């Protein structure tokens, strides 16, 4: 893996609402620590960072505008010069202008972290891959929640996470680890 100097870190939905207990049991308790490790490296190497914020269309959502859940967690607040994209659906490319921003800046490589693996992370990574971006999803820098499948069978967050990553790997993105990404950053 060779990361270009303008490889862009995309941090999805690290808002206060994602910590709400009503979302249920999650996996990867160290995910935020991994995201912050990557964010620190991106900032030190002056690579681009894009923070994605979800503004829900559903009043019962933890991301409904006008309440604290929609706000970025303090530790993930965008720094001066870092781009901030707002979305209303899981896919960060849908009706946000994100593709145009990346194309105008000549960005070809994306490193995606955030939540939820099976939802906004997967849909954003699928579109990134379909649009031809070289896309990496950091498996230990994402998390999701316990979820029932269409037939009502319960699946643990670990199973949901693994299936979602399996859906992405090799077709839409390369699934990798924080350590692997940091090694690539350090070798430049």
Automatic annotation (TrEMBL):
Residues 8-179 form the Isochorismatase-like domain. This is Cysteine hydrolase. Keywords: Hydrolase. One of its GO terms (molecular function) is hydrolase activity. It comes from the Bacteria. It comes from Pseudomonas umsongensis.
């Amino acid at each position: 893996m060779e990361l270009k100097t303008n490889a862009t870190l995309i941090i999805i939905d690290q808002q206060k609402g994602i910590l709400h207990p009503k979302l249920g049991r999650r996996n990867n308790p160290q995910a935020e620590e991994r995201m912050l490790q990557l964010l620190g490296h991106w900032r030190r190497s002056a690579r681009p960072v894009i923070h994605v914020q979800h503004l829900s269309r559903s009043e019962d959502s933890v991301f409904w505008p006008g309440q604290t859940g929609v706000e970025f967690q303090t530790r993930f607040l965008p720094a001066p010069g870092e781009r901030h994209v707002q979305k209303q659906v899981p896919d960060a490319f849908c009706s946000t202008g994100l593709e145009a921003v990346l194309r105008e800046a000549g960005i070809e490589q994306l490193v995606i972290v955030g939540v939820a693996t099976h939802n906004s992370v997967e849909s954003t990574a699928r579109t990134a891959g379909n649009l031809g971006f070289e896309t990496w999803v950091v498996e230990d820098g994402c998390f999701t929640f316990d979820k029932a499948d269409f037939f009502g069978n319960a699946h643990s967050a670990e199973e949901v996470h693994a299936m979602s990553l399996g859906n992405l790997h090799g077709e839409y993105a390369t699934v990798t680890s924080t350590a692997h990404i940091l090694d690539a950053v350090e070798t430049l």
